[in-house]
């Protein structure tokens, strides 16, 4: 499958400033995701799958966020989730799915 959506990131060039920007991006996206913003889910998936914004690559977290966006119809997230799934073990995918369910349960309790 094409991985054109992946951006090459040279992590050796990431400075402390970028780490702060990455933390701020994650915080903003998490706040938006808590309100059901599917684009925030997707942005988090991209950040965790590519190491963008100085964030460490974490395919389990990336899958979780792509999965959350995909289940509500984000087509690009569906493709990205499929792409990274090819690089993950069944156990890692199961963990990502568990984390997605946990996120949904936590955010639906807050909304109630």
UniProtKB/TrEMBL annotation:
<dbReference type="InterPro" id="IPR011990">
    <property type="entry name" value="TPR-like_helical_dom_sf"/>
</dbReference>
<protein>
    <recommendedName>
        <fullName>Sel1 repeat family protein</fullName>
    </recommendedName>
</protein>
